[in-house]
Write a structure and sequence with these properties.
Layout: H1 5-18, E1 21-24, E2 33-37, E3 46-50, E4 63-66, E5 75-79, E6 88-92, E7 100-101
Parallel strand pairs: 1-4, 1-5, 2-5, 2-6, 3-4, 3-6
Antiparallel strand pairs: 3-7
Length: 111
Amino acid sequence: MKLPITLVFIVCVAFQCSAQKVFSVQYANQADVKVFVVDYENQADLKVYKVKYANQAGKNDGKWFFTDYENQAKKTIYYVDYQNQADLKIFFVEYENQAGWKNKSKQHLMY
């Protein structure tokens, strides 16, 4: 059975859109989400693990791949200086299995 090219394209695009590929922008007005990196895990909305390769990026589960170019990213982020300026508070974890949402009410920010 041959799949129409359109169906194959839609499936590929849908898979790409769910990956957490992010790009850090220089200015707040360029960002989809403003983030603040907290000092302690229990202060975070999301625990983030940086993956080494794009194909390891998760589906909104805290496994982020930082792209080299903005057009390769699903979301653009800006690091704010103060916690009260942030849409999302994150904490970088050391191990992949530690990544994930602690505050699921903010999960929509990364879709």
